[in-house]
Amino acid sequence: MELVNVFDYEKLAQARMAPPLWDYYQGGSDDEVTMRECRAAFERIKLRPRVLVDVSAIDMHCEVLGTPVSMPLLIAPMASHCMAHPEGECATAQAAGRAGTLMIASTVATRTIEEIAQAASGPLWFQLYTYPSLKVAELLVRRAEDAGYRAIVLTVDLPRLGNREKDRRHNITIPPVPYQEANFVDVEKVGQAWVTLTWESLAWLRSITSLPVILKGILTGEDARLAIEHGVDGIVVTNHGGRQLDTAIPGIEALPEIIEAVAGRCEIYFDGGIRRGTDILKALALGARAVLIGRPVLWGLAVSGADGAFSVLELLRKELELAMALSGRPTLASIDRSLVKM
Ligand SMILES: Cc1cc2nc3c(=O)[nH]c(=O)nc-3n(C[C@H](O)[C@H](O)[C@H](O)COP(=O)(O)O)c2cc1C
Fold it and tell me: Is 85 a catalytic residue?
């Protein structure tokens, strides 16, 4: 059977994974209102296509912080890829490279920073959790720099873990045994579970690295302004896939006020609920430079490792290409706010 969209991958992946691991991937927090809204918000936004435009050639190449990518679709940082496939993050990094795009590797990956860099054929960014101490976090940043990662993505929406009730019902630890957080295998885990971050922490991060810094987890214009005042290079507008504060606003509804507050002073990326090419188109029209996808990549990985993750990326590329053609927007520059009706 041909897998024609990402939902086909979702069904097949579920059939292949043990329920506690599947629920860990799929679940949100509390009543999963935000998680559902991520999808519903996209369905509410309508497109205003233009016609009689030459769409015989579609160009979706772009740059993110100066790094060229073949399309404005990147891989979001996610924990524990080895639950989907034994090669885990190494397979995902190979898929990203083959698709000409970039992967953001998570602090709590199941393959090490160095293993992922070795397997990768494309650019990488490193997602940082300051866990369990700033000393350990500094070590991780150094390792990422040494391994050639090009930016640090500091996740700021996880001062504590959200209330994931499915995981509690399965009585699983995070990450579930035996999936180790590979980056910590030789690290003595002394310190707090999560180091409390404040806006002052950005000076600390700047003091330990010269890599560009991106904040992931901004949902308001107020915080976007503060991010700019603190000199960040990029922002990911996201609610963490509905896994943190339930009933938080869908990212796509927060995007316009953040674009307005930032006014071109740094790059803005978006994630949460991207499942169709038209979703990508809407996020770009509202001002995102590129989008990240999360769970669909894990579905592809669970179905057939690097090939599956690659197929998911290619499927979304084709859908975006078609959506650009059908809406009369042959280049990324021609995608603007007039394309959407909120
Ligand atoms: C299984 C899973 C693990 C995740 N782990 C991380 C993580 O380690 N760091 C992080 O910043 N975000 C993490 N996220 C959030 C994603 O980066 C992203 O914001 C979200 O999944 C995007 O929504 P989508 O899954 O609907 O595409 C995780 C998400 C999932 C589903």
Answer: no
Long-range Cβ contacts of 103-106 (<8 Å, 24+ apart): 103/74, 103/75, 104/74, 104/75, 104/76, 104/77, 104/153, 104/292, 105/77, 105/149, 106/77, 106/78, 106/79
Q: What is the pLDDT of residue 180?
A: 86
Residue 6, pLDDT score: 98
Task: Give the model's pLDDT for residue 179.
Answer: 87
pLDDT at 46: 98
Closest C-alpha residue for ligand 1 atom 3: 78
* pTM across the whole model: 0.98
Nearest to 329 by CA among 140, 47, 1, 4: 47
Ligand 1 atom, smallest distance to 295 CA: 25
Q: How far is residue 243's CA from residue 26's CA, in Å, rounded to a whole number?
A: 9
What pLDDT is attached to residue 160? 94
Distance between Cα 241 and ligand 1 center (Å): 6
Please give the domain boundaries of the chain with CATH numbers for all domains: 6-47+62-330 (3.20.20.70)
Q: Per residue in 177-201, pLDDT tens? A: 788 899 998 777 766 677 999 999 9
Pocket test for ligand 1, best of 7, 23, 37, 78 (most atoms within 8 A of CB): 78
Q: How far is CA 245 from CA 164, 168, 287, in A?
A: 10, 17, 24
